[in-house]
Amino acid sequence: MTNPPPERTLTYAVDLTPEDVRSLEAFLNAQLGRVSEEVGETGETSFAMRSLLILVCDSAGFLHQLLTAERPKPWQRAAIVREWQRLRSTAFDFNHCDGYDYERWWKQIRHYDATDEAAEQERIRHLATLYPWTDDEADQGKED
Question: Against a cut of 0.85, is the pTM above it?
Answer without folding.
Answer: no
